[in-house]
């Protein structure tokens, strides 16, 4: 039987939806987390890269550091309800870096779960310093069963790179 593109999409959507419904909810809609963080030299834009594109900037917190802080607060909130053997992975980061953050400034990061369905969750994030809102956006996550994810998704890629499980070039826990 020849399947059309739309029937293949419908079938894949049905399989994905069925799997999502089998996964226990990993986030609670409305969950709110807040954290205070004092920025430091490790967050400075000059540490984000090398060369004149990075060194010729004022001493401010890099956007990638702001995204890391926002992801972290969401992941910590997800730990509260994560099933055994699962971990969260970011799938989308949409953040407006709205104002400069001075090195040494204290920022307040707030995250609120605005969508929770099976293994998927979306979080509204806001970052404020003592003067203004300096960042806001949305972070999306999926919960994966870590051993299955590593075996099915990562192992083939590591094998293609010639890595053995003991020679993966980043720390594991």
Structure notes:
The protein is an alpha+beta fold and 173 residues long. It has one domain: Hotdog Thioesterase (Thiol Ester Dehydrase, Chain A). The protein has four helices and five strands, in the order H-E-H-H-E-E-E-E-H. It has a five-stranded antiparallel β-sheet. The longest helix has 18 residues, at 5-22.
H-E string: HEHHEEEEH
Q: Strands of the biggest beta sheet: in what spatial order? A: 1-3-4-5-2
Number of helices: 4
**CATH level-four homologous superfamily name:** Hotdog Thioesterase
CATH fold node name:
Thiol Ester Dehydrase, Chain A
Shape: globular
Helix content: 25-40%
The CATH class assignment is Alpha Beta
**What structural category arises from helix and sheet content?**
alpha+beta
What's the number of extended β-strand segments?
5
Could you say what the CATH architecture is?
Answer: Roll
What's the story with the biggest beta sheet?
5 strands, antiparallel
* Percent strand: 25-35%
**How far apart are the first and last residues' alpha carbons, in Å?**
46 Å
Tell me the number of structural domains: 1
Report Rg: 20 Å
Q: Please state the average pLDDT score.
A: 87
Poorly predicted spans? none
